[in-house]
Design goal:
9 helices, 0% strand, mainly alpha
Length: 152
């Protein structure tokens, strides 16, 4: 831990990697590769340490890799926790409500932008079957539109 008593980025990364151990993405790749890519995407977009920490943890609660209780009790800044909660999809939640929460949470849009960029990476999508690829491409495009994030 740092002098502030908070988890360091290295500790957050290690925690996220351990929490998602054995999980794979839709393409069958180790899930930690996605987390690493999103964290790097946040860094490349000028994100700060709190946003990079949130990037490592952005799917942990949604995927039940870590509990909401764990997140609440974790030695992380309130801003990091709020970003993770903002980008965590809730069961049955309309995309508009999800996008709205991201837009009103300081720092969350940059994390979601990095997440969408990696999810929509043509190389990642190329290994999926056509129907899945089309469905996900449409889903990511719709979310980018709701968030006002331009397509690259």
């Amino acid at each position: 831990m740092t002098h502030t008593g908070r988890l360091t980025l290295a500790e957050v990364e290690a925690t996220a990697r351990a929490a998602h151990e054995g999980q794979t993405d839709k393409a069958g790749r180790p899930y930690a590769e996605h987390l690493s890519a999103v964290a790097e995407g946040v860094r490349a977009r000028g994100g700060d340490e709190e946003q990079i920490a949130a990037a490592w943890l952005h799917d942990a609660v949604e995927d039940d890799a870590l509990s909401a209780h764990w997140l609440e009790e974790a030695a992380l800044s309130r801003r990091t926790k709020d970003i993770v909660l903002a980008v965590t999809k809730r069961a049955g939640e309309p995309p508009e409500a999800y996008a709205g929460r991201i837009l009103v949470t300081p720092g969350a849009l940059l994390v979601k932008e990095a997440d969408l960029a990696h999810n929509a990476d043509p190389e990642r999508l190329a290994v999926l079957d056509g129907a899945t690829r089309a469905r996900l491409t449409e889903k990511y495009a719709r979310m980018r539109a709701l968030l006002g994030v331009p397509t690259r």
